[in-house]
Amino acid sequence: MATLLGLAAALGWGLTDFLARLAGDRLGATRTMLFGQASAVLVLTLWLAAHPDDARLALGAPLWAWGAGLLAAQINLAGTYTLIRGMTTGAVAVVAPVTASYGAIAAALAALSGEAISRAAWAGIGLTVLGVACMAWPARATEGPAPTRGAAFAWALLSAISFGVGFWVQGAFAVPRLGAIVPVWLYYAGSVPTLLLVLGRRVAPLPALGQWPMLAGIGLSGAAAYLAFCAGLQTGALAVVAVLSSLSSGICVLLAGLFLHERLAGHQWASVAVIIAGLALINRG
Asked: What b-and-e string marks burial along 38-67, b requiring 16 or more CB atoms within 10 Å of the CB?
């Protein structure tokens, strides 16, 4: 079940990134993120109102679990911010593979905190991380001055560390007591006012009516992916779920190849075989 939920999270986040890429050309990355996540907040709030048992479970949790949920939400927000900064500072060829290593960071933290991981699963995790990094590496790297590449790498590394730590905090402390839905709601509810502060007056004008379906799709697919991720964390297999969710970057690349006719390089096709081998080892372990 953990494997399926991790893959579901990867599929949802990959679709989210792909749709955000399309919408971002017109609205900009930050505005796209704001309106997409506002849609997610609305949907999740309506869900909690319609399913009060989920809210009651969280209300009965200890304060430290709420603190962990809020802390994880802010750390993951920092991961999102540093990812955007990296993308706008340098080449995707530098940022994407480095950021995708968050799964390995979360897996290492899970192991250090006592999660039992077999040798076969560790081998699968290593192959999957390698495959994701290769898949995310574009066919042609965008050249740029060395200081720009260095800054992009630094932002990407901060993003990977933030996501790795944030997801570990969620899986180890928040999700077991708050359930799967409330930690996701905390992330989206906290991100909207943060993005409003970052944008300031640049929020206006509102998107055109025809752009809202895509923005709603971004919010819904992102929220569904996050819910699948947190449900996977409830299984206790934090390392496996975190690593598999990092496949989202590869899925985004595949979607771009299918629908935008972007050609995949030989190393990207080879990475598919590496990822499949990694998944087989994880499933065996």
From this structure: bbbbebbeebbeeeeebbebbeebeeebbe
